[in-house]
């Protein structure tokens, strides 16, 4: 076991250098020390889910490491309880060695401003990547130890390292929030005056503050005071208006592009940029300036992201008096990290799955949730700001904050949601621009009719303040710029009620399935007219589903579903590229791409990736789906996903034949299904379905021939081609495994017989009567398939039979024989068959010849009877 350690009372450089060391050696585990500086602790409380650190109390101190990396210190703190004697130890420090190294110690230090700088250089040399969050923490490490690159010990190497981190997406806004700047006595006095004169307004969801003060003498560094004040109040934007003896000084600071500080300053003759600006005002009084600032902001600020935009709807809550043993299985199936605890609908605490499991490990299964929960009433409303969320997470140390509306828990926001939001709003500078979906793009790919339909659904959803999302293949294909007219929506709420509202408003009909919360809205011509989008062909129907989650009671079982949020709904899907959604309601988020599971990254990289390691165990048909999508999109099955497929192949034997058959029938609809079949055969999936299931080596050639023909039973045709090369007993076994039904099994066996068991068909010029004798009882579709895929001369022989020979009939029939005085009996069919064969083989070519031949046959029959 490899460990990464640092000094106690760890500052940002200490933890940042630990993180950087872990990036270089991912097998080494960074163990946080017993104590952290307050600002470091606050940062890790907010963002630890996105970082690899192990907390001090979770570290097994009895373990003996095989290797130690020590950062930002030269001595292992005693509190770790590690006997490091003779354990290979690498010391990385930005000061000179304080002692003589021991024989098992290696020094990699150098004199720079921050230890983090040394490790950034190694990361660059190895061409490693860092996330935006990691870059921000490393930037804090450098800034903390170099006084934001101003201390005398700062070197060019520190500045270059910081510049590289900025390129990787380090957030200077976040760095600023965790750094402080000291003020002088005059500035401190001004700060106190401004603090005592605050005006707060919530504009478009942003907390904006204006502070005013009057100074009897000139004050320098008002911008520094404003920055300090901004750090203390933590608003979205701050404006300080200071009346000086000769002018009024306005300083503007914004933390968001949505609030343009420069535009405010320019209104008063000043200047600056979107985040920082200033103006010297000579012709207006203090309060007049304040009023004009408020008026300008109310007219220009765009809506903010609110907690309601981040939350997952349909939070799973537990009751305070629930017995732990009664609910633990449900909690484990759902798998969330934390659950709001309620009593009479009021939040009274948070139960983490970790605490619940620990209680059970100590045989406390009879305790109530109240006995185990983290007590507290920490909640937010959907309109709360993201800043309020961050502050509450730090204050409560809860990783999940319940969202309450009208006295009821309606959702939850987690640290992961916050980190995702943080990453989306602070993308790496080197990242390509995220794709954009808008009305113009939808119109270009799907047409005006589909766009109009989507916009009408959005309009009705917005009236009802419902969260509604386009989901499924249509989203994936829009991003790939492919047409897809299967329109599916997920509703955060009652999808059936919403579908019925659409039907009541615009006509059509609705078929719903309450257990799954799904509804199909069938459209017709009257619907098109009511929608006002009659110019174009509407789809037959569109699907609505309530956002839901699911779990599997056992491997390969059909899922058990329960209501959830869009995030949970997307998280239950098969592959990351199918977890993407496009929000169409509320209006403020129209056309927003929702990507919780890095689907955009895999879409760009052309990868098929499952969401979790048990995905194929839960539903082995996803193996077949992975191959289908891989072939359709020309994507690669990601390496770990391919490994999971191999491990889960035996599970295919436990899936019902109908589900397997349905998945393979979908494969027939792809452009070149033979490629998918070869892939399934190579990976062992066909043999896993049934040991006798093998693909013919010439499958590609046969499938291409099939695609060149317009067969009315195309799906059955593929099965004929795929299986007819097998012995009839294997065809029976596979057909029964896949629940084909007797008619299809019999038809495929007939195709096998025609192609492989009738030697007469391989002769160059067989007697037609012999061919008719063996093919007369064969199903027409089997004959059609055999003619299409047989080699010459068999193909021509079968085709001639179908086009000509099977239609040959003598003119005489039973009535003719009866009129000739021949007694009825088996002799009738024998004579008529002889007549037919004579016609087929060219022994008779006219009615007169038939009549003469018939007289001969009848005479022979009479002579036989008389003898």
Give a brief rundown of this model:
The model has no long low-confidence stretch (mean pLDDT 88).
Which key terms come to mind for this protein?
867 residues, alpha/beta, Diaminopimelate Epimerase, Chain A, domain 1, CBS-domain, 7-stranded mixed sheet, 39 helices, elongated, nucleotidyltransferase, nucleotide binding, metal-binding
Give a verbal description of the structure.
The structure is a single chain. This protein has 867 residues and is an alpha/beta fold. The chain folds into 6 domains: 2-177, inorganic pyrophosphatase (n-terminal core) (Alpha-Beta Complex), CATH 3.90.1640.10; 185-300, Diaminopimelate Epimerase, Chain A, domain 1 (Roll), CATH 3.10.310.30; 308-425, CBS-domain (Roll), CATH 3.10.580.10; 439-605, Beta Polymerase, domain 2; 690-807, Methane Monooxygenase Hydroxylase, Chain G, domain 1, CATH 1.20.58; 814-866, no CATH class. It is 45% helix and 15% strand. A 7-stranded mixed sheet has the order 21-22-23-20-19-26-27. The termini are far apart.
- In the CATH classification, which architecture of the largest domain applies? Alpha-Beta Complex
Radius of gyration: 38 Å
Structural class determined from secondary elements? alpha/beta
The share of residues in extended strands comes to: 15-25%
Major β-sheet annotation: 7 strands, mixed
Beta strand count? 29
Unreliable stretches? none
Family: Belongs to the tRNA nucleotidyltransferase/poly(A) polymerase family.
GO biological process, one term: tRNA processing
Domain CBS: 311-367, 373-428
Cofactor: Mg(2+)
